TrEMBL record:
Membrane topology annotation: Multi-pass membrane protein
Annotated organism of origin: Dillenia turbinata
Keyword tRNA-binding: no
Transmembrane segment boundaries: 20-41, 53-72, 524-546, 650-669, 684-706, 718-734
Coiled coil: none
Keyword Transit peptide included in the entry's annotation: no
Keywords, alphabetical: Cell wall biogenesis/degradation, Glycosyltransferase, Golgi apparatus, Membrane, Transferase, Transmembrane, Transmembrane helix
Family named by the database record: Belongs to the glycosyltransferase 2 family. Plant cellulose synthase-like E subfamily.
GO biological process terms, semicolon-separated: cell wall organization; cellulose biosynthetic process
Subcellular location: Golgi apparatus membrane
Protein name: Cellulose synthase
Residue sites binding UDP-alpha-D-glucose per the record: E112, D141
Annotated GO MF terms: cellulose synthase (UDP-forming) activity
Catalytic site: D141, D449
């Protein structure tokens, strides 16, 4: 920025204290691992001895767990926390704030309802930020006229909503979230309550019209007449085959036409459904983002870009200002490419049954990554500098170059501008260009965010993780077990693909980002690689228990100590960490369970699919997570009852493992209690303990298989198949 106003920092960085104790503790665990390896190496079963193979597999699994634990230490070694000075920002820059373009992506009106989408859009339009500098773009990959219609309604409703938010400084600024949280005006201030009731009525009316239109499958004729945009759908437009649709619903360049109830300008609002043709790959969200980068560069060209998913409304109207404190800081601002906010959720239940919050990642690992050189880009809730997102390298010149002014295209009419922009959102525009490779968001993986963030970091930019006290973005987590597992399959598959590609953080990042940052990416890269070790560990002890073959040290042997120490210290610490991050003990137990489920299903399928993908035998998809739930399903979700209901192969694996452990424990109990074979207890005690833990984790599975009557229970076909598989496995191991 180079102004002569003295260097006032706009943000501050604090280091976490007490890491020394943690490091000592972690060193002691490391010693435990080493001792146990010494034991294993010195107790290899002789050639021909029963259980040699099982013993080796368990050893490999243990080596893996130790190694994976080691990888998790890099992002725990140091942690930093950021705080901002928004008053300094506005003192200095209030009149010269940069343009901010907000990109919202939606993909399917049936699982991402238009009312939810516009609530997100409205919350973003209502940011506490100069409206003439703010533009909101919606990319609709569903190409739905109901979403378009909802946007049109939102553009009208914004005229009342924005002044209301401003006047009464309300939070959150998503109307749905606001009215759900406050059932009545919070005080009896008559002016406020008057406004409150009338706005609520307007909102309910709008919501009702949109929902009715969706239900009836058509938008009322008089509505259609009101906007030329509907003509696009009259020409016949299917979701996977249509021309680019681009409508500037509010043109911020026309201040006289687009004002709210208070006479203030409204933010620019744009609807885009990029061109879709069956013969062109559309590259999922990454393709949508790149179309938006180009289109917005012609319309508003804001120098800061915010990306949010359609379910993640803004819960904090000051987020833009917070983010700008980083970008506009005199000393460090010019190096910063993106500011990532945590992803928090509205529908998380108390004990977070499916572990969707990723609590420890949010509270510990991301601040840890920040200390290593910068967090990864995790999609929703991230502010970017336009240059770095578009693919430019960092150079020192950014410091001297003054902030780009908003170069709005004043010479064209709205319609002309729309036509110009449509070309930028066509299927062919990217042919023979660097889009998706060196420019914009990267293609070729279902987790475009991580790879894009990594490549930005490798181009010399820094990133920031900012976790303000008031949650900034609040979205929705999956409400069924299957959706939760499928989401993790997509993520872990994406991570492994990146790991196996030229973008492997350890190779691609070499000499470009700090080594500890490269290593901090590894636990995520190798998520799916946990599948084998976990599969062995939850099946082999049980199978060998049936045969009476010991895989672990005897309970009386001193070698049991390092083994116990590693596990007790690791899980004890993880419990402490989880509770310290605000979780409950039951929540930790759920988290541990879901980790095992993910390992044996999501990560396993992700691993297999990635291998097929590498071999060129399959292509990876993007299963969009549903944001709507049937009533009885959502009731069970709220009561924290597992939702099985579908005959998915994932559930067959889960149920088979659960039954296998149950059978072998019963077998062991029988031998001890009925045949009085106490001698087996000594060598097999550890295996019995492992079985008991697996069984305890699987209690909800047994309930779903045998005891529940509701619609969410395990389908009978899963019960039968898994019973057969488990019995088969037991008999094979017996004979
Ligand atoms: O073809 C597509 C597919 C998805 N989306 C949008 O992408 C977003 C994320 O999809 P969702 O199914 O909600 O995935 P999540 O797993 O919840 O999303 C996380 O993980 C994704 C990568 O897998 C990132 O893109 C997201 O930003 C991040 O929040 C949603 O707004 C979708 O509408 C599109 O626009 N086009
Ligand atoms: Mn989502």
């Amino acid at each position: 920025m180079g102004e002569k106003e003295g260097n006032i920092t706009l943000f501050e960085t604090k280091k976490a204290k007490d890491r020394v104790l943690y490091r000592l503790f972690s060193a002691s665990i490391f010693v435990g691992i080493c001792l146990f390896v010494v034991y294993r190496v010195n107790h290899v079963p002789a050639q021909g001895e029963a259980g040699r193979l099982g013993w080796f597999l368990v050893f490999i699994a243990e080596l893996w767990f130790g190694f994976y634990w080691f990888l998790l230490q890099f992002c725990r070694w140091n942690m930093v926390y950021r705080c901002t000075f928004k008053d300094r920002l506005s003192q200095r820059y209030e009149k010269r704030m940069p343009g901010v373009d907000v990109f919202v992506c939606t993909a399917d009106p049936s699982i991402e309802p238009p009312v939810m989408v516009i609530n997100t859009v409205l919350s973003l339009m209502a940011y506490d930020y100069p409206t003439e500098k703010l533009s909101v773009y919606l990319s609709d990959d569903g190409g739905s006229e109901f979403t378009f219609y909802a946007m049109l309604e939102a553009s009208q409703f914004a005229k009342h909503w924005l002044p209301f938010c401003r006047k009464f400084k309300i939070e959150p600024r998503s109307p749905e979230a606001y009215f759900t949280r406050s059932n009545a005006p919070p005080n009896h201030d008559s002016l406020f309550s008057q406004h409150w009731y009338s706005i609520k009525k307007l909102y309910e009316g709008m919501k009702c019209r949109i929902e009715n239109a969706t239900k009836q499958g058509k938008v009322a004729e008089e509505m259609r007449k009101r906007h030329k945009g509907f003509q696009e759908w009259d020409m016949g437009c299917s979701r996977r085959d249509h021309a680019a649709i681009l409508q500037i619903l509010i043109d911020g360049r026309k201040p006289h036409k687009t004002v709210d109830d208070d006479g203030r300008r409204l933010p620019t609002l744009v609807y885009l459904a990029r061109e879709k043709r069956p013969q062109y790959h559309h590259n999922f969200k990454a393709g949508a983002m790149n179309a938006l980068i180009r289109v917005s560069s012609k319309i508003s060209s804001g120098s800061i870009i915010l990306n949010v998913d359609c379910d993640m409304y803004s819960n904090n109207s000051e987020s833009v200002r917070d983010a700008l404190c980083f970008f506009m800081d005199d000393q460090k601002g010019h190096e910063i490419a993106y500011v990532q906010y945590p992803q928090l959720y509205e529908n998380i239940t108390k004990n977070d049954l499916y572990g969707s919050l990723l609590r420890v990642t949010t509270e510990v690992e991301l601040p840890g990554l920040d200390a290593c050189g910068g967090p990864c880009y995790i999609g929703s809730g991230c502010f970017h500098r336009r240059e770095s997102l578009s693919g430019l390298k960092y150079t020192k010149e950014w410091k001297t170059e003054s902030k780009r002014e908003n170069n709005r295209n004043e010479k064209y009419s709205t319609t002309e501008l729309e036509e110009i922009c449509k070309v930028l959102a066509s299927c062919t525009y990217e042919e023979n260009t660097q889009w998706g490779k060196e420019m914009g968001v990267k293609y070729g993986t279902p987790i475009e965010d991580i790879i894009t963030g990594l490549s930005i970091q490798c181009k010399g930019w820094k990133s920031i993780y900012y976790h303000p006290e008031r949650e900034s973005f609040v979205g929705l987590v999956p409400t069924t077990l299957l959706q939760a597992l499928v989401q993790h399959k997509r993520w872990s598959e994406g991570h492994l693909q990146i790991f196996l590609s030229e973008h492997n953080p350890l190779i691609y990042g070499h000499n470009k980002i700090p080594l500890r940052l490269q290593l901090s990416y590894s636990p995520y890269s190798l998520w799916s690689a946990n599948c084998f070790a976990t599969l062995w560990y939850v099946s082999l002890p049980a199978l060998f228990l049936v045969r009476g073959i010991s895989l672990f040290p005897k309970i009386s042997s001193p070698w049991i100590l390092p083994f116990l120490y590693f596990n007790i210290a690791k899980y004890g610490y993880s419990l402490g960490e989880f509770v310290f991050c605000g979780g409950t003990v039951q929540g930790w137990w759920n988290d541990t369970r879901i980790w095992v489920f993910r390992c044996t299903t999501s990560y396993f399928f992700a691993f297999v699919d990635t291998m097929l993908n590498v071999a060129g035998l399959s292509e990876s998809g993007f299963v969009v997570t549903a944001k709507v739930t049937e009533d009885d399903v959502s009731q069970r979700f709220e009561q924290e009852i597992f939702e099985f209901a579908t005959p998915s192969p994932m559930f067959i694996i889960i149920a088979t493992l659960a039954m296998l452990n149950m059978f072998s424990l019963l077998w062991a109990v029988k031998r001890v209690a009925m045949d009085l074979q106490y001698t087996i207890l000594e060598p097999l005690a550890m295996q019995i303990v492992v079985c008991i833990i697996v069984i305890a984790l699987n209690i909800p599975v047994y309930q779903g298989l045998f005891f529940r009557k509701d619609r969410g229970r395990m389908p009978t076909s899963v019960t039968i198949k898994s019973l057969m598989f488990a019995l088969l496995a037991c008999s094979i191991s017996l004979y």
